[in-house]
Amino acid sequence: MKAAIVHDFTKAPQYGEFELRSLQQPHEVYVDVLAAGLHQRVRSQADGSHYTSIGQLPLIPGVDGVGRLEDGRNVYFVMEDAALGSMAERTIIDIRRSVVIPADADPVHIAAAMNPAMSSWVALRSRIDFRPGSRVLIMGATGNSGQMAVQIAKLLGAEQVIGAGRNQARLEALTDLGADVVVSLEGEASDVAERLGKAAAEVDVVIDYLWGAPMEQAVMSILTRRQDRSRALDWIQIGSMAGAEAQIPSAALRSANLRILGSGQGSVTAAGYLAAFPALIDCIASGTLRIPTQSYPLSEVEQVWTAPVDPQKRIVFVPS
Questions:
Q1: Residue 313 CA: distances (Å) to CA of 209, 265, 308
Q2: 7, 22, 123, 130: which one has the fewest Cβ atoms less than 10 Å from its Cβ?
Q3: CA–CA separation, 16 and 286 (whole Å)
Q4: Cα 132 to chain centroid, rounded
Q5: Where are the beta strands (DSSP E) in the chain?
Q6: pLDDT digits (tens, 9 = 90+) for 137-188
Q7: In sequence order, what are the beta bridge partners of 297?
Q8: How far is residue 113's CA from residue 39's CA, in Å, rounded to a whole number?
Q9: CB-based burial of residue 302 (10 Å sphere; 0-12 exposed, 13-18 middle, 19+ buried)?
Q10: Cα–Cα–Cα angle for 18, 19, 24, nearest 5°?
Q11: What is the distance of C-alpha 227 from the center of its chain?
């Protein structure tokens, strides 16, 4: 079969022949892949930098996708095998890690939106006791996952959503997705901290795709401005686009009710993710959650992988 194949972590996947192994476990099934998204998580899988990487090569990238079972049903699936991904004409999935999607759902749209939407959807529904009327700050709101988080927070009943990011044009576009306030992260650290503190002092939840310096700049500025520091602030760490480490003053934990927790593989079980999928799929299939998408034939994977792309659009590969 044809597939995108990573032979070297320093190079883009190449389109070529790959021999698919036989089924080995009772719950394994073959699927014909209809669409597979090129998410940031997939890029880190393909260059070996993701924290789940085991350094195994060759590998087929792709952590999820939409495929057709032998009985004709279409399913959204999440891969389990770190070396056998979804960017192939055919792959093997654990049927227990899949859910049937509506027959009229667009496979490309589902493949594009599920991964970036999943992080905030699961974080708000499973990691904390999120309540309608809460106020939410999204750090890294101009990325694809951040844009989905703006929509999801509003969909789940947030009273106010504040989007923070660097790209001014994309920041301004967040208002069309439901953001009430936008905050630029460009400029001197002290200025950024001042803006975040003023805008987000009374938030109940922070969804953080950045970590690193932006978190360091924001945390004390926000906490010291809160009218009631004993009121809980849930800071959910999801991504580390701005750095894997952040220095948090001990005073941040003693002087306020700051609760830092993560959301991702390991902190949420596979069963926890699967339970959240059907409702999220319905929101994507109905158009309630939107993400601009561009599809390409899988045969063009090497060129597309390294070419400049519109950061506003999610790339999806489909069979050639």
A1: 18, 25, 12
A2: 22
A3: 36
A4: 22
A5: 2-5, 14-17, 28-38, 64-68, 74-78, 90-94, 98-100, 135-139, 160-165, 181-184, 205-208, 233-237, 258-262, 293-297, 314-318
A6: 999 999 989 999 999 999 999 999 999 999 898 999 999 999 999 999 999 9
A7: 318
A8: 10
A9: middle
A10: 130
A11: 32
